[in-house]
Amino acid sequence: MKTDGGSDAAKRRAGERAAEAVEDGMVVGLGTGSTTAYAIEAIGRAVDDGLEVRGIPTSYQSRRLAIDVGIPLTALDEVDAVDLAIDGADQVAGGDLIKGGGAAHAREKLVDSAADRFLVVADPSKLVDRLERPVPVEVLPDARPVVERRVRDAGGEPHLRAAERKDGPVVTDNGNLVLDCAFGEIDDPGDLSARLSAIPGVVEHGLFVDLADATYVGTTDGVDVHRY
Ligand code: 5RP
């Protein structure tokens, strides 16, 4: 479930500023979505100018874009460390995020959390005082009814994410389904994160608690950087 709105100019400013943090020799996690795409394109231009980096994509989308703009790719099992990750978010409350609007949150969390530094890129429409969007939960297809019951027990209302230009559900890059789980305002993201992670059949959920090191928010005339 993607967010509506947010200006492309603000997304571009955020993405391009975060890309300036990429230095020669780095291994860089490449997030997913329209804001991160601006960062990936900027890194591609820097590679054209001689920057030596290797990227680890988090989705089919970011892999394809990285290849198109000429970023050499690697994988988590081929590197000792990830220096930096740049990724978008659907909602940002301080350093806590809801991600998974593009159903890529399982690989995003893996790569973003493996990075020494994780920079979030966003436009102001993503900023909130308290997280309240439905939380995307990737589930093994067979586990769907079981997970739905457990989400209701935890006070949430799950909705199977439907594909838009295909009959039936969204199927993730990992071959799984996504339940968008509405909890209303989330008082304690850490507690909910732990509860969702504990449900058998849940592959990963889109609450990113205390993972971000900084948020780059594009504005009408610049970029606000918040460090955590
Ligand atoms: C994909 C994500 C994206 O980072 C999130 O949806 C933000 O995307 P955009 O920059 O296009 O608004 O979590 O799973």
TrEMBL record:
Keyword match Isomerase: yes
EC number in record: 5.3.1.6
Protein name in UniProt: Ribose-5-phosphate isomerase A
Catalyzed reactions: aldehydo-D-ribose 5-phosphate = D-ribulose 5-phosphate
Assigned keywords, A-Z: Isomerase
Similarity comment: Belongs to the ribose 5-phosphate isomerase family.
Biological or metabolic pathway of the protein: Carbohydrate degradation; pentose phosphate pathway; D-ribose 5-phosphate from D-ribulose 5-phosphate (non-oxidative stage): step 1/1
Name of the encoding gene: rpiA
Binding of substrate, residues: T32, G33, S34, T35, D87, G88, A89, D90, K99, G100, G101, G102, K126
Job description of the protein: Catalyzes the reversible conversion of ribose-5-phosphate to ribulose 5-phosphate.
Pfam families, sorted: Rib_5-P_isom_A (PF06026)
Organism superkingdom: Archaea
Active site residues of this protein: E108 (proton acceptor)
Family matches, as PANTHER family: RIBOSE-5-PHOSPHATE ISOMERASE
Any one GO molecular-function label of the UniProt entry: ribose-5-phosphate isomerase activity
Listed GO biological process terms: pentose-phosphate shunt, non-oxidative branch
Enzyme class, first EC level, given as a word: isomerase
Subunit details: Homodimer. Homotetramer.
